[in-house]
User: What shape does this take?
Amino acid sequence: MEKVRDRLLNVDQVGQRLQCSRRHVYNLIEKGALPAFKIGSRQGIRVKESKIEKFLDECSMNCG
Assistant: This one.
């Protein structure tokens, strides 16, 4: 089975993907709704693309 590499997205990229502001992305991360992690001291926060897909799937199931 071939393992697909998961892209890491920064907060701006996540905001574009979710069509929301940077602040909203940070709020989702702080609430634990969107898993993220910090890379280095200057690289900032990253979110795996697969976690965004999972978040969107869960939102679509809960919202209708």
